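Lecture 7 notes. Example A: sequence first, then its C-alpha coordinates.
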Amino acid sequence: MSVAQTVLPDERRFRSDLESGAYLLGAALCRWRLLRIDWPHALIAVSAAPRTGAPAEFVLRFNLTGYPQAAPTALLWDDIANAEPPENRWPAGTRVSCVFRPRAQWPKPCLYLPCDRVSAEGHPDWPQQYANEIWKPDSTISHYLNQVSELLTSSDYTGLRHA
Protein backbone atom coordinates (compact mmCIF):
# COMPACT_ATOMS: atom_id res chain seq x y z
CA MET A 1 0.00 0.00 0.00
CA SER A 2 1.36 3.44 -0.88
CA VAL A 3 1.70 6.34 1.54
CA ALA A 4 -1.02 8.27 -0.34
CA GLN A 5 -3.51 5.47 0.37
CA THR A 6 -2.83 5.58 4.12
CA VAL A 7 -3.43 9.33 4.49
CA LEU A 8 -6.80 9.93 6.14
CA PRO A 9 -9.27 12.38 4.58
CA ASP A 10 -8.85 14.96 7.38
CA GLU A 11 -5.07 14.95 6.96
CA ARG A 12 -5.36 15.12 3.18
CA ARG A 13 -7.66 18.14 3.47
CA PHE A 14 -5.33 19.86 5.96
CA ARG A 15 -2.31 19.32 3.71
CA SER A 16 -4.32 20.67 0.78
CA ASP A 17 -5.22 23.78 2.79
CA LEU A 18 -1.50 24.36 3.44
CA GLU A 19 -1.21 24.89 -0.31
CA SER A 20 -4.11 27.36 -0.48
CA GLY A 21 -3.63 31.00 -1.35
CA ALA A 22 -4.72 32.20 2.10
CA TYR A 23 -2.23 29.98 3.92
CA LEU A 24 0.63 30.67 1.50
CA LEU A 25 0.00 34.43 1.68
CA GLY A 26 0.21 34.37 5.49
CA ALA A 27 3.41 32.34 5.29
CA ALA A 28 4.89 34.66 2.63
CA LEU A 29 4.11 37.66 4.84
CA CYS A 30 5.89 35.86 7.72
CA ARG A 31 2.71 35.76 9.78
CA TRP A 32 3.10 32.02 10.43
CA ARG A 33 5.16 29.00 9.49
CA LEU A 34 4.61 25.28 9.68
CA LEU A 35 7.11 23.52 11.93
CA ARG A 36 5.91 19.96 11.43
CA ILE A 37 2.98 17.59 11.12
CA ASP A 38 2.69 14.51 13.28
CA TRP A 39 -0.89 13.61 12.47
CA PRO A 40 -3.34 14.45 13.96
CA HIS A 41 -1.16 17.22 15.40
CA ALA A 42 0.58 20.10 13.65
CA LEU A 43 2.95 22.66 15.14
CA ILE A 44 2.64 26.13 13.63
CA ALA A 45 4.59 29.18 14.80
CA VAL A 46 2.69 32.47 14.69
CA SER A 47 4.72 35.69 14.54
CA ALA A 48 4.28 38.35 17.21
CA ALA A 49 4.93 42.07 17.17
CA PRO A 50 8.33 43.01 18.62
CA ARG A 51 8.14 43.51 22.37
CA THR A 52 11.03 43.80 24.82
CA GLY A 53 11.97 40.41 26.27
CA ALA A 54 9.33 38.54 24.27
CA PRO A 55 9.88 35.97 21.52
CA ALA A 56 9.36 36.81 17.86
CA GLU A 57 6.79 34.00 17.57
CA PHE A 58 4.65 31.65 19.60
CA VAL A 59 4.16 28.00 18.72
CA LEU A 60 0.69 26.47 18.67
CA ARG A 61 0.08 22.75 18.82
CA PHE A 62 -3.06 21.94 16.86
CA ASN A 63 -5.17 18.84 17.19
CA LEU A 64 -6.78 18.46 13.77
CA THR A 65 -8.83 15.30 14.24
CA GLY A 66 -11.87 15.44 11.95
CA TYR A 67 -10.62 18.56 10.12
CA PRO A 68 -12.29 20.61 8.70
CA GLN A 69 -15.78 19.39 9.64
CA ALA A 70 -14.59 19.46 13.25
CA ALA A 71 -12.83 22.67 14.21
CA PRO A 72 -9.20 22.47 15.24
CA THR A 73 -8.20 23.00 18.82
CA ALA A 74 -4.86 24.48 19.79
CA LEU A 75 -2.75 25.36 22.76
CA LEU A 76 0.45 27.26 23.28
CA TRP A 77 3.43 24.92 22.97
CA ASP A 78 7.11 24.74 23.90
CA ASP A 79 8.58 22.60 21.14
CA ILE A 80 11.85 22.02 23.01
CA ALA A 81 10.18 20.86 26.24
CA ASN A 82 7.42 19.12 24.26
CA ALA A 83 4.85 20.58 26.66
CA GLU A 84 2.79 23.64 27.33
CA PRO A 85 5.13 26.46 28.43
CA PRO A 86 4.93 27.97 31.91
CA GLU A 87 2.39 30.79 32.08
CA ASN A 88 5.07 33.47 32.46
CA ARG A 89 6.06 32.59 28.85
CA TRP A 90 2.52 33.24 27.55
CA PRO A 91 1.58 36.37 25.59
CA ALA A 92 -0.07 39.21 27.51
CA GLY A 93 -2.43 42.10 26.87
CA THR A 94 -6.04 42.78 27.79
CA ARG A 95 -7.70 40.86 24.94
CA VAL A 96 -4.65 38.66 24.39
CA SER A 97 -4.81 37.43 27.99
CA CYS A 98 -8.50 36.61 27.51
CA VAL A 99 -7.58 34.26 24.66
CA PHE A 100 -4.44 32.86 26.35
CA ARG A 101 -6.20 32.37 29.68
CA PRO A 102 -4.33 31.11 32.74
CA ARG A 103 -5.30 27.55 33.64
CA ALA A 104 -6.67 28.78 36.98
CA GLN A 105 -9.28 30.76 35.00
CA TRP A 106 -9.73 28.36 32.09
CA PRO A 107 -8.65 24.78 32.82
CA LYS A 108 -9.32 23.48 29.31
CA PRO A 109 -6.13 22.99 27.25
CA CYS A 110 -7.02 25.32 24.38
CA LEU A 111 -7.16 28.94 23.32
CA TYR A 112 -10.33 30.75 24.28
CA LEU A 113 -11.45 31.54 20.74
CA PRO A 114 -14.79 31.00 18.98
CA CYS A 115 -12.99 29.08 16.21
CA ASP A 116 -11.53 26.56 18.67
CA ARG A 117 -13.38 23.21 18.94
CA VAL A 118 -12.87 22.74 22.69
CA SER A 119 -13.45 26.38 23.55
CA ALA A 120 -16.69 26.54 21.56
CA GLU A 121 -18.19 23.68 23.61
CA GLY A 122 -20.71 25.07 26.05
CA HIS A 123 -21.07 28.40 24.23
CA PRO A 124 -24.28 28.02 22.19
CA ASP A 125 -24.48 31.81 21.74
CA TRP A 126 -21.10 32.10 20.00
CA PRO A 127 -22.32 31.33 16.45
CA GLN A 128 -24.57 34.40 16.59
CA GLN A 129 -22.29 36.55 18.74
CA TYR A 130 -19.10 35.81 16.75
CA ALA A 131 -20.48 34.94 13.32
CA ASN A 132 -17.26 35.96 11.54
CA GLU A 133 -14.94 34.18 13.98
CA ILE A 134 -16.74 30.88 14.56
CA TRP A 135 -15.45 27.79 12.74
CA LYS A 136 -17.54 26.50 9.85
CA PRO A 137 -17.02 23.20 8.01
CA ASP A 138 -15.68 25.10 4.97
CA SER A 139 -13.15 27.05 7.07
CA THR A 140 -9.43 26.44 6.66
CA ILE A 141 -6.53 26.55 9.10
CA SER A 142 -5.87 30.11 7.92
CA HIS A 143 -9.14 31.17 9.56
CA TYR A 144 -7.78 30.14 12.97
CA LEU A 145 -4.26 31.44 12.30
CA ASN A 146 -5.55 34.84 11.18
CA GLN A 147 -7.34 35.34 14.50
CA VAL A 148 -4.22 34.49 16.51
CA SER A 149 -1.97 36.53 14.24
CA GLU A 150 -4.20 39.59 14.56
CA LEU A 151 -4.00 39.35 18.35
CA LEU A 152 -0.23 38.89 18.48
CA THR A 153 0.41 41.83 16.16
CA SER A 154 -2.16 44.17 17.70
CA SER A 155 -1.42 47.14 19.94
CA ASP A 156 -3.11 45.16 22.73
CA TYR A 157 -0.25 42.62 22.74
CA THR A 158 2.22 43.78 25.41
CA GLY A 159 4.78 40.97 25.45
CA LEU A 160 5.11 38.18 27.99
CA ARG A 161 2.88 37.70 30.99
CA HIS A 162 4.49 38.63 34.28
CA ALA A 163 4.93 35.78 36.73
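Example B, a different protein, same format:
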Amino acid sequence: FDFHQKNISFLRQYEPDKPNNFYQLENLKRVLSLEYRGFSRHTFIRYWLCKNDNPSEFIGSVCFHHFRSDAVKSCEIGYKLSEEECHNGYMTEALHFLIPLIANNFQLHRMEAFVMPTNLPSIRLLQNLHFQEEGLLRDYALIKRQWEDHLILSRIFPSSENI
Protein backbone atom coordinates (compact mmCIF):
# COMPACT_ATOMS: atom_id res chain seq x y z
CA PHE A 1 0.00 0.00 0.00
CA ASP A 2 2.75 2.45 0.97
CA PHE A 3 4.71 1.71 -2.22
CA HIS A 4 1.68 2.45 -4.40
CA GLN A 5 0.67 5.56 -2.46
CA LYS A 6 4.14 7.03 -2.67
CA ASN A 7 4.49 6.37 -6.40
CA ILE A 8 1.01 6.94 -7.86
CA SER A 9 1.87 9.91 -10.06
CA PHE A 10 5.19 8.44 -11.21
CA LEU A 11 3.75 5.02 -12.11
CA ARG A 12 0.63 6.40 -13.82
CA GLN A 13 2.71 7.75 -16.68
CA TYR A 14 3.67 4.19 -17.69
CA GLU A 15 0.92 1.89 -16.42
CA PRO A 16 -2.43 1.15 -18.02
CA ASP A 17 -5.33 3.13 -16.61
CA LYS A 18 -6.77 1.72 -13.40
CA PRO A 19 -10.13 2.26 -11.71
CA ASN A 20 -10.34 5.17 -9.24
CA ASN A 21 -10.43 2.80 -6.27
CA PHE A 22 -7.41 0.76 -7.37
CA TYR A 23 -4.97 2.36 -4.92
CA GLN A 24 -7.27 2.00 -1.92
CA LEU A 25 -6.26 -0.52 0.73
CA GLU A 26 -9.26 -2.84 0.33
CA ASN A 27 -8.77 -3.09 -3.42
CA LEU A 28 -5.03 -3.71 -3.09
CA LYS A 29 -5.81 -6.57 -0.67
CA ARG A 30 -8.11 -8.05 -3.33
CA VAL A 31 -5.39 -7.65 -5.98
CA LEU A 32 -2.88 -9.44 -3.74
CA SER A 33 -5.38 -12.25 -3.22
CA LEU A 34 -5.81 -12.63 -7.00
CA GLU A 35 -2.05 -12.59 -7.47
CA TYR A 36 -1.68 -15.29 -4.82
CA ARG A 37 -4.18 -17.48 -6.69
CA GLY A 38 -2.20 -16.95 -9.90
CA PHE A 39 0.99 -17.83 -8.05
CA SER A 40 -0.51 -21.07 -6.72
CA ARG A 41 -1.51 -21.99 -10.30
CA HIS A 42 1.93 -21.05 -11.70
CA THR A 43 0.40 -18.40 -13.98
CA PHE A 44 1.54 -15.26 -12.19
CA ILE A 45 4.61 -14.53 -10.06
CA ARG A 46 5.42 -11.19 -8.44
CA TYR A 47 8.63 -10.53 -6.54
CA TRP A 48 8.73 -7.48 -4.29
CA LEU A 49 12.05 -5.66 -4.06
CA CYS A 50 13.56 -4.07 -0.98
CA LYS A 51 16.96 -2.80 0.03
CA ASN A 52 19.16 -5.07 2.14
CA ASP A 53 19.33 -2.49 4.91
CA ASN A 54 15.54 -2.03 5.09
CA PRO A 55 13.67 -5.24 4.19
CA SER A 56 10.33 -3.91 5.45
CA GLU A 57 10.14 -1.13 2.82
CA PHE A 58 9.27 -2.19 -0.71
CA ILE A 59 10.95 -0.20 -3.46
CA GLY A 60 9.61 -2.06 -6.49
CA SER A 61 8.39 -5.30 -7.97
CA VAL A 62 8.99 -7.67 -10.86
CA CYS A 63 6.12 -9.64 -12.33
CA PHE A 64 6.15 -12.66 -14.62
CA HIS A 65 2.78 -13.51 -16.18
CA HIS A 66 0.95 -14.93 -19.19
CA PHE A 67 2.95 -18.14 -19.02
CA ARG A 68 2.52 -20.41 -22.01
CA SER A 69 3.72 -23.97 -21.73
CA ASP A 70 2.56 -25.03 -25.19
CA ALA A 71 4.80 -24.89 -28.24
CA VAL A 72 5.57 -21.21 -27.52
CA LYS A 73 7.06 -21.73 -24.02
CA SER A 74 6.98 -18.05 -23.13
CA CYS A 75 5.97 -15.48 -20.57
CA GLU A 76 5.75 -11.73 -20.21
CA ILE A 77 7.73 -9.64 -17.76
CA GLY A 78 6.82 -6.35 -16.15
CA TYR A 79 8.50 -4.33 -13.45
CA LYS A 80 8.19 -1.10 -11.52
CA LEU A 81 10.47 0.81 -9.22
CA SER A 82 9.97 3.67 -6.82
CA GLU A 83 10.86 6.96 -8.51
CA GLU A 84 13.46 7.81 -5.88
CA GLU A 85 15.26 4.48 -6.44
CA CYS A 86 15.55 4.68 -10.22
CA HIS A 87 19.04 4.64 -11.73
CA ASN A 88 20.62 3.02 -8.66
CA GLY A 89 21.03 -0.45 -10.18
CA TYR A 90 18.37 -2.19 -8.09
CA MET A 91 16.25 -3.32 -11.02
CA THR A 92 19.30 -4.44 -13.00
CA GLU A 93 20.44 -6.54 -10.05
CA ALA A 94 16.99 -8.04 -9.54
CA LEU A 95 16.43 -8.89 -13.19
CA HIS A 96 19.92 -10.38 -13.64
CA PHE A 97 18.96 -12.83 -10.92
CA LEU A 98 15.25 -13.40 -11.65
CA ILE A 99 15.18 -13.76 -15.44
CA PRO A 100 17.41 -16.88 -15.59
CA LEU A 101 15.67 -18.31 -12.52
CA ILE A 102 12.22 -18.08 -14.14
CA ALA A 103 13.48 -19.14 -17.58
CA ASN A 104 15.08 -22.26 -16.13
CA ASN A 105 12.28 -23.22 -13.75
CA PHE A 106 9.60 -22.86 -16.42
CA GLN A 107 11.81 -24.12 -19.28
CA LEU A 108 11.05 -21.00 -21.29
CA HIS A 109 12.22 -20.38 -24.80
CA ARG A 110 11.06 -16.76 -24.92
CA MET A 111 10.35 -13.82 -22.59
CA GLU A 112 8.57 -10.66 -23.77
CA ALA A 113 8.39 -7.10 -22.46
CA PHE A 114 6.20 -4.23 -23.64
CA VAL A 115 7.56 -0.70 -23.19
CA MET A 116 6.49 2.75 -24.28
CA PRO A 117 8.98 4.12 -26.85
CA THR A 118 9.51 7.20 -24.65
CA ASN A 119 10.63 5.08 -21.67
CA LEU A 120 14.29 5.09 -22.67
CA PRO A 121 15.70 3.92 -19.30
CA SER A 122 13.51 0.81 -19.45
CA ILE A 123 14.47 0.11 -23.05
CA ARG A 124 18.18 0.42 -22.17
CA LEU A 125 17.70 -1.88 -19.17
CA LEU A 126 16.10 -4.56 -21.32
CA GLN A 127 18.73 -4.24 -24.03
CA ASN A 128 21.45 -4.67 -21.39
CA LEU A 129 19.66 -7.87 -20.35
CA HIS A 130 19.86 -9.23 -23.94
CA PHE A 131 16.31 -8.34 -24.99
CA GLN A 132 15.97 -7.33 -28.62
CA GLU A 133 13.41 -5.02 -30.13
CA GLU A 134 10.96 -6.81 -32.40
CA GLY A 135 8.54 -4.11 -33.39
CA LEU A 136 6.03 -1.44 -32.56
CA LEU A 137 2.54 -2.22 -31.31
CA ARG A 138 0.36 0.72 -32.28
CA ASP A 139 -2.24 1.94 -29.77
CA TYR A 140 -1.35 -0.96 -27.50
CA ALA A 141 -2.46 0.26 -24.06
CA LEU A 142 -4.72 2.94 -22.61
CA ILE A 143 -2.48 5.12 -20.43
CA LYS A 144 -3.69 8.40 -18.96
CA ARG A 145 -6.80 8.07 -21.15
CA GLN A 146 -4.81 7.91 -24.37
CA TRP A 147 -3.90 4.93 -26.49
CA GLU A 148 -0.13 4.61 -26.40
CA ASP A 149 2.20 2.72 -28.72
CA HIS A 150 4.52 0.15 -27.15
CA LEU A 151 7.65 -1.57 -28.33
CA ILE A 152 7.83 -5.31 -27.95
CA LEU A 153 11.22 -6.60 -26.86
CA SER A 154 12.04 -10.25 -26.36
CA ARG A 155 14.78 -12.46 -25.11
CA ILE A 156 15.26 -15.91 -26.56
CA PHE A 157 16.78 -18.64 -24.41
CA PRO A 158 18.64 -21.34 -26.36
CA SER A 159 17.65 -24.76 -25.06
CA SER A 160 21.10 -25.28 -23.53
CA GLU A 161 20.61 -22.09 -21.47
CA ASN A 162 17.43 -23.10 -19.67
CA ILE A 163 16.78 -26.84 -19.79
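Note on Example B: The mean pLDDT is 86. Residues 10 and 83 are 6 Å apart (CA to CA).
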